[in-house]
Amino acid sequence: MRTRTPRRLLGALAVLAALSLTATACGSDDSGTGTGGGTPKDVAAALEKGGKVTVWAWEPTLKKVAADFEKKYPNVDVELVNAGTGDKQYTALQNAVAAGSGAPDVAQIEYYALGQFSIGETVEDLSPYGAAKYGTSFTPGPWNAVTEDKAVFALPMDSGPMAFFYNKKVFDEHGVKVPTTWDAYVEAARTLHKADPKIFITNDTGDAGATTSLIWQAGGRPYKTDGTKVTVDFGDEGTKKYTATWQKLLDEKLVAPISSWSDAWYKGLADGSIATLSIGAWMPANLSSGVAAASGDWRVAPLPQWTEGGKASAENGGSSLAVPKAAKNKELAYAFAEFATTGAGATSRVAEGAFPATRADLESRAFLDKPFPYFGGQQANRVFAESARNVGEDWSYLPFQVYANSIFNDTAGKAYVSPTKLDDGLKTWQDASVKYGNDQGFTVDE
């Protein structure tokens, strides 16, 4: 997360959350009618008085949470609005802030994008409302993503500790053991592809989130931010570990040139031609719904390690609930965000299929013992929970990560689909990110 930003930068920062960069410049004035800087007592009073809370979110598990919140607080009306997923919503939110009207009371914001809103001072610091007390309630990765010093800019809604999903049927057929290191992973890729040229260890055409998550797991920390001073350096040792391994896979054509979430991707996961995924713990629901034909074939294991015997993991995905400064009733907005992310609200969302960011849910017997029929009855949550405990600390995103991710395929992404080397591709991405950051008023070093 980030520290406060000089007002001279706010006009430039207004466009950072908009992927298309179409939002007009804006300041950080509080255009909402709520009091702001509320206290727990103010929140209690707001709940008793009631009113309307508009929530922009695409997460389906919030539907039940909204109904439960209205039942508990009958004077409150919750309006759930799907303003678009990810970047589309961020553009709409920034445009509403710039226009001075139309902003929601609560907004779902992914961890990688939250810094853009906090540094632009367009979301509330929730610590005065009582949010700081939850510091030990959430797992380290999500909590670190929403906090800066004593400020809490959102409450974690879910998390995405990474795990290794593999097709056991394919592995067994070709006598391949589950790799515990990335070196063994490369050997498994070679064995599978030699046995059947139609089988690839995984797919990859360049994905910013997947790439940075594996660099995170390898110990890389390419981004550092101190207020408006930013460093981007993809030459660190962790990044080199990742590129050395992935370059072997690309050079030997052991990676399927198929984009994730495409029809070809789902087909490959179903027929076994894509044999593994290294991805967030939210993936099971997507496999169950999108790759139903392969039910029983897949299993879950810890990520392969960069060092034999290690346990390092990283986050891949996850989002939070923030209260825009333009919210009309900040106290009521905070009350909903708190309800949805802690206690019964969080437990309800886990039951609906969300992966928890809360320690209590992550450590509950019901959660850990839950069998997954899709994974042959495996208690997969035990693997996910262990991963959450081993997420590397001190990771940070750029305060303009949405933009950086939007140019990944035009820069670093070329290395996954052409002779361009990964090190060179990441350097091109780095240079483009540095230029953009400096153009926006940051001081960016390499």
UniProtKB/TrEMBL annotation:
Keyword Signal: yes
Cell inner membrane in keyword set: no
Signal peptide: 1-25
GO terms of biological process kind: transmembrane transport
Keywords (A to Z) from UniProt: Signal, Transport
Coiled-coil residues: none
Pfam families cross-referenced by the UniProt entry: SBP_bac_1
The organism's place on the tree of life at top rank: Bacteria
Similarity comment: Belongs to the bacterial solute-binding protein 1 family.
Protein name (record): Sugar ABC transporter substrate-binding protein
